[in-house]
Amino acid sequence: MTSPDPGRPRWRRWLSLSNLVLLALWVFILVRVGPHLAALVGFETGDRSRPTYAVTTLDGGLIEADSLAGRVVLVNFWATWCPPCRVEMPLLEAMHQRHRDRGLVVLGLSVDTDPAERVRAFLAERGITYPVAIVGAREQMAFGGVAGYPTSFLLDRQGRIRHRAMGPLAMASFEPAVRRLLEEPAAPVTGNLPGSGGR
Questions:
Q1: Which domains does the chain show, CATH number per domain?
Q2: Rounded distance, CA 63 to CA 196, Å?
Q3: Would you give the DSSP letter of residue 67?
Q4: Residue 51: is its pLDDT beyond 80?
Q5: What is the pTM of this model?
Q6: Cβ contact 180:191 at 8 Å
Q7: Tell me: the pLDDT tens digits for 74-99?
Q8: What is the dihedral angle through the alpha carbons of 195, 184, 74, 55, rounded to the nearest 10 degrees?
């Protein structure tokens, strides 16, 4: 058995390929899974900024940040070509159905470059009824940028980002966070959401 070279500094002995790979794996896990665990236990990963945005849904309705005041809003950036997004969509639809009467709005923001008709057909095949709009870089930057898809942002009744997470686990991990935010007091919400229906 060989002993560590006493002439090498400790940090140089630690700096091996296997240790670097292990470190990179842990960083990846923390970046991807950390926000999900945080949402489960109630630790906020959002910066509480209030994004300003205005989108036209595939139904032709206009949704602006101000029009959603008083509601809890789950904004989901996604694409038809993204397999994890496809996995997540039934969970999003179920969350929409479960909590919409209590004041939750699920807003899908597609980054597709395909024609709108193709996106509509994609949603219709999957029975998606929450509002969906096709957006570009401007809307992504309004939320501080999006590094990958799907990425979800959970906004409170004042329009502040309280949670953000990347990956299809967000719908499971965001459920407790959605319930907590829906319990927070707010002014009564009146009127129908413009552009609901997704198709």
A1: 30-183 (3.40.30.10)
A2: 9
A3: G
A4: yes
A5: 0.76
A6: no
A7: 999 999 999 999 999 999 999 999 99
A8: 40
